Each structure stands twice: as structure tokens, then as C-alpha cells.
Amino acid sequence: MYFDSQIHRALRLKAAETDRSVSNLVNDAVRMSLAEDAEDLAAFEERAREPNLAFEDMLKDLRKRGKL
User: Fold this and answer.
1) Are the beta carbons of 25 and 14 closer than 8 angstroms?
2) C-alpha angle with apex 67: 61 to 68, nearest 5 degrees?
């Protein structure tokens, strides 16, 4: 895996300051990113059953309620 030189330097400094390895920091960051992806996918699945609302209809509704 290759990092931009400035990102790699920042990772090395953070690893030294936190007494952790660069690999540990990267693994934690990737794990958190994948967990966020899993949450997003679950939300998409949950909302897939909701009815679609056309953009034009949404604008009309907002105008009708005085929001636009």
C-alpha cells in the first residue's frame, strides 16, 4: 500500500505519539469506514420500501406549505 508522502509522515507521527503502529491506525480507519458503509447500505435497504416522490411534486408541496 502506498501513501502520499505527507499522509505517510502524518501517520508515522501519530503512531509514535499514540504508541501504536501505522498498520494498527490504518486497520482501525478502514474498519470504521467499512462499518459506515454497512450502516449506509442498511439504511438504503430500509428506505427502498418507501414510495418514491418526484422532485417536482416535492417542490410543489414546499411551495404550498410556504417553505419556498
Assistant:
1) yes
2) 90
Q: How many CA atoms lie within 13 A of 17 on its CB side?
A: 6
Enumerate residues 6+ apart whose C-beta is below 8 A from 68. Answer: 59, 62
Q: Is the pTM higher than 0.90?
A: no
C-alpha cell at 28: 482501525
Q: What cell was used for 21?
A: 503502529
pLDDT tens string 13-32 = 999 999 999 999 999 999 99
What does the alpha-carbon distance between residue 39 and residue 46 come to, in Å, rounded to a whole number?
11
